[in-house]
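--- STAGE predict ---
source: upstream dedup step, 1 unique chain passed
mode: sequence only
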Amino acid sequence: MHVPVLLHEVINGLNIRPGRSYLDCTVGSGGHSQAIIQQGGRLYGLDADPQAIKRATNQLSISCPGADWQLRCLNFNQLGQAAQDWGIKAFSGILLDLGLSSDQLADPKRGFSFQVDAPLDMRTDPNLQVTAADLVNGLNKGELYELFLKLAEEKHSLAIADHLVRARRTRPIRTTLDLVRIISQVVPHRPQGIHPATKVFQALRIVVNDELNNLRSCLKQALKLLEPKGRLAVISFHSLEDRIVKYFIRSEDGLINLTKKPIVPKEAEIKFNPRSRSAKLRLAEKYG
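--- STAGE serialize ---
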């Protein structure tokens, strides 16, 4: 079961006011959305993953019967279009949780996890054309090196790219464990550290779903759609995502930075939900 990250901090940060409209740009399994509704907010939600929308719809129907909420299966870079379709001119708060849900990681057909063998897919939206397998089999050595260096910040990027190119000469790299085996030949495994494949998987997922460009687009639209004194809350799990959010909040004249340093999970939350350990929450308020 998916556990929403930094739930208490997000709800406090959004300053939920009963009857006001809030947008969850990354509904996932509905944990944050449910809490917004239970605080009296009118919830509007987006997710590019149709399975996530289905799970969230079921969850909210059970936990919040009769409540005022609407969900759409759209990427968060389309929030402007969604607001127009809903007839909403401004939101009192907008949330982005940029992490994968436990349900996505647990689904063996999606290819997000390096712990189960699955097709090397990694698309959050099944309508996207390019998969992770297309990248590892189609990019040349230099392109793979640049991808892993810039997006994974992986110090073994060149060696990983070299091993991938040599391995695919024998047979295509089709599954998650195919990729894990190649990475494990290059990156040493430290018992107390992250899995050797973590950074590479994250980088491939970012490219497959164009996550950084979508994030930049979403933030610009979110600022326009916040009402005066409306709150923006963004949870990131990757240093590049956090830098984009940090720069956006600090560089926009229309925003007040509410978190000079990002809010991170307390030890108790990390112990209960280890996936939360790399989460960073940044908050901002639109000038009123």
